[in-house]
Amino acid sequence: MKSVTAYANTNIAFIKYWGKLQGEKNLARNLPAVGSLSMTLDDIGTTTTVEENDRDAFMLNGETLSGEPADKVFRFIDRVCSEVSAKRAPVRVISTNSVPTAAGLASSASAFCALALAATRAFGAELSPAALSGLARQGSASAARSVFGGFAELPASVGGEEVLAAQVLDENGWDVRLVVAKTTTKEKAVHSRQGMQHTAATSTYYPAWIADWRRDFDTGRKALLARDLTTLGEAMEHSTLAMHATTLAARPPFAYWNGATIDCMHAVWALRQSGTQAYFTADAGPHVKVLCAPADVEKVRAALTAVPGVLATLTHKPGTGARLL
Predict the structure, then answer these.
(1) Three-state SS for 145?
(2) Which of 61, 136, 154, 179 is deepest in the core (most CB within 10 A)?
(3) Host H or E run for residue 245
(4) pLDDT in tens, 30-70
């Protein structure tokens, strides 16, 4: 076994992944109940080293972690060894994450993608990007898309079939920007996996979400290939609001948004009324991400910065896929 370091950028879904196929085996494999479409961001992600050690150990951002966070990592290492038919040895996993953990900025996407790449190579296996995406998905479904640069899709699983992510456009395929408005420094109270299961089990709107997701996915994918910002943006906003509606209609209800989240949405709508093509999305968290043309970045940042409760704005272009360091 050798020491291997890998890096993966995070990605943000334009057309949302929200919900897994039910059943113990399907849940364990993180098989998505709906298809998703995303953009991999530049310069925000996770660097992970996997190396042999005398015992399992996990460090994140310089801190040694135990309990469930470490258990998730080592369960994934077990799965990697099973997938690549390698003898499981104790490992030290060292990760540095520039994405805030569990804050709604898709930290698990870059984390499990980097871990999948580093671990497979450390145990002597070299997987194709498609196969690597299938393995990364079992740690976090969103991680499957971070294997690829630019824009990627992850299909829905039908009847428990295996699904792999694929690139739709590479990082040079469309020159757009995603402006991120950070609205808190706190970790979210309801983690994505818990929220998905709760809405699937209790939300009045979840069946409608499952029945209607393909319309936004198909529209968004065609718009992405056509570089049609308006049509993609409209599908993206609808997908975002439909996803979050399932949480509001759960029993008991919960919301990932805070006041600044909603005010940012209104700011984006006001930008469009004044002629600026800008469209928002929000993951399972309170931060708002706004898709726009490069020429409109400063207008968008100014509008978001003016919203009370916005702590900072960051701008990202399409980034590269996972790689070894």
Answers:
(1) helix
(2) 136
(3) helix 229-248
(4) 899 999 999 999 999 999 999 999 999 999 999 999 998 89
pLDDT of residue 87: 93
Inter-residue contact 255 to 244 (CB < 8 Å)? yes
Say which DSSP state 155 is in: P
Range of weakest confidence among 25-29, 36-40, 150-154, 282-286 = 25-29
DSSP SS3 for 317? coil
Which tens digits make up the pLDDT trace of 188-207? 889 888 999 999 999 999 99
Q: Where is pLDDT greater, at 308 or 108? A: 308
Residues 267 and 298 in one domain: yes
State the residue range of the domain holding 117: 4-173
Q: Are residues 273 and 287 in the same domain?
A: yes
Q: Is residue 106 part of a domain?
A: yes
Quote the CA–CA distance of 277 and 268 in Å, as a whole number.
9
Quickly count: other Cβ atoms within 10 Å of residue 117's Cβ.
29
Q: What angle do CA 233, 239, 245 make, to 5 degrees?
A: 135
Placement of tokens 């393995």 in the chain: 135
Q: Is 323 inside any structural domain?
A: no
pLDDT at 100 over 70: no
Total count of domains within the chain: 2
In a 10 Å sphere around its CB, with 0-12 CB exposed, 13-18 middle and 19+ buried, how is residue 192 labelled?
buried
Q: What is the CATH number of the domain that holds 90?
A: 3.30.230.10
